[in-house]
Amino acid sequence: QVQLVESGGGLVQAGGSLRLSCAASGRTFSDYAMGWFRQAPGKERELVAKIGSIGGADYADSVKGRFTISRDNAKSTVYLQMNGLKPEDTAVYYCNAMRSGSSYWGQGTQVIVSS
Fold first, then answer.
1. In the prediction, which pLDDT does 101 show?
2. 23 burial class (0-12, 13-18, 19+ CB within 10 angstroms)?
3. Which end of the chain is more exposed for a tag (fewer CB within 10 A), N or C?
């Protein structure tokens, strides 16, 4: 089992920045690929960004150039730096750990971007 706890969400004005953190425990963090997903009201959960166990990041087209995913294996933490936030980025953001068919989720953190 992997336990994931997100933090860093909140209310921000359009154009502002937030940094989300996801602290992992329970297994060897560096063995897992990590991802950030988001779900807006009435919409499907979608992948925002992912990073492999040794790096290598991919992003949704909608956030490329604005969001940056990173990980600190020594701290068992993955981050999502979000700059240039837009109202359409409003959603609950979820952290995900993936390895060999296993997938674990955090409880989510709310991000609200006001116009």
1. 86
2. middle
3. N
